[in-house]
Design a protein that fits this description.
single chain; alpha/beta; Rossmann fold
């Protein structure tokens, strides 16, 4: 049973990568993590509750949240789970687009809808959506960029609708982050990796902890005057690209 006296935060895809870093940081900050993921973490954090679930299954998500809510007040949500199906426009299949849409865009909406009654009752809520710098445009990212741009659009819309209930909604747009998945395809010292680092103004790869730090700020009780924003954590890449002509 999850104590109602703990600050609970539901994080999707919290078993590895950026999601794991967010879960670790929020645990350190005194939150109790409820992890929705299809893969289990290598070990549980202090007080972590792991639930093996496909978050694109709306019916299963709704049922599970209702069950958890009988013993835990959940008024904080991090929509982190996502996928990339890279491909040039002519190679994008409808199946790939639908899969990316279901996880990256539809699932965050359903999760927010499920938790909204509890946030309204508490007159308090924090929603952090993990978007991407790719929302601004990136080659071979038709489905991914479209859904991440949609996440930003939903973030702005929800912020306007929910501000009156004490609920803030913000997005984080990561740049290149050295997760296990990223480094497996871009090993340190490889020419492609060096080229990426050279394009980053701060001249280093981002770390999952960089995103976790941003999430911790937006999740804080004291961040009540920040809503509808997209915080790009990209080492300055977004600024540099916006100045390029």
């Amino acid at each position: 049973m999850i104590s109602v006296n703990k600050k609970n935060v539901l994080i999707t895809g919290a078993s590895r990568g950026i999601g794991r870093a967010i879960a670790t940081r929020l645990t350190q900050d005194g939150y109790r993590v409820i992890n929705f993921d299809q893969s289990s973490p290598s070990s549980l954090l202090d007080g972590e509750a792991f639930h093996c679930i496909d978050v694109t299954d709306s019916k299963a998500v709704t049922q599970l949240i209702q069950e958890i809510a009988t013993s835990a007040e959940i008024v904080r949500l991090v929509n982190n789970a996502g996928m990339i199906k890279p491909g040039a426009l002519e190679d994008v299949t409808e199946a790939d687009f639908d899969a990316v849409y279901a996880l990256n865009l539809k699932a965050p909406m359903v999760l927010a809808q499920c938790l909204l009654p509890y946030m309204r009752k508490a007159n308090f809520g924090r929603i952090v959506n993990i978007a991407s710098r790719a929302a601004l445009g990136k080659e071979e990212r038709t489905a991914y960029a479209a859904t991440k741009a949609g996440v930003i659009g939903m973030t702005r819309t929800w912020a306007l609708e929910l501000a009156q209930f004490g609920i803030t909604v913000n997005a984080i747009g990561p740049g290149p982050i050295a997760t296990e998945l990223f480094t497996s395809g871009n090993p340190p010292g490889a020419p492609k990796t060096i080229k990426i680092i050279e394009s980053i103004p701060v001249k280093r790869m981002g770390q999952p902890e960089d995103i976790a730090h941003a999430a911790a700020y937006l999740m804080d009780d004291r961040a009540s005057f920040v809503t509808g924003q997209t915080l790009y954590v990209c080492g300055g890449m977004t600024v540099g690209l916006s100045n390029a002509s």
